[in-house]
What does this fold into?
Amino acid sequence: MKIQKFTIAMLVLLCGIAHNTLAQVHPDEVIALGKVEPYAIEVTYEKTSHIIFPSGIRYVDLGSDNIVAGKAEDADNVLRVKAAVAGFPTESNFSVITEDGQFYSFDVCYSDHPMVMSHNLSKGMRSSSRDKAADIRFEALGTTPATLTGLLMEALYNKDERQLKVKSEGYGIALSLRGIYIHGGKYYFHIQTENTTHVPFTPDFIRFAIVDRKVAKRTVVQERTLEPLRLYKPLLTVTGNSKERNVYLLDVFTLTKGQVLEIEMVEKNGGRGQRLKVRNADLLRAEPLTKLRLKF
It folds into this structure.
């Protein structure tokens, strides 16, 4: 009986010490360690609100069942939000992570007549509104924040200097590898497609593959496809007498003897696709991204 009383007394004492310790930490001090200022928006039941983000939406988490949200069809940077319950009384919230590594927080209130139904966060993101977003690190991108990766790809996209002379052309279409760059354990491939005809060239897809050719009694072709981790912009139609560039992000790799990297651009509903062959010597000439001027 004495042992039970002693045990209970000790538990009460330990709980009291823990409570006093926690009470000494002011809530504002905890939040200040990494506070992300939320946006405040109003939603209603009869109409849909839209939020335009600077980059594609990767993740959405809703705070309650009082609201529903989803990406707009054919527009991965537009989020549709509306009330699931008419006149819900309590404030809710939701969070969004975008492909450029930004985290956004929203406080949501119900209104029969919201003052604003469409919100454009892509406007002015690199100035005053940037303090309401936080950088996210994606595992696939390694130690480089997604925001910095995007800035590096943008700088390379605008880079006029040509580092390599790897090229394939035919039927008025020329595919060229302008340069290979390296940063944070990733390759950045800067590729250009040129159309010297009046017929538009619409890419279906681009393929990166390590190909090993061994000649015995017959040729055996083995290949390993490499999936780009990211591309700077979607594949666009190259109109007549014009050029289009893009930047592709891949994990660092090297080639063994007898292997080449094939980069194939396939035309949609056509046969004017081109194929580049990249040697190991080209990969080893990859330049570090230490002198690029980034625009913040």
In short: The two ends are 70 Å apart (CA to CA). The chain is about 15% helix and 45% strand.
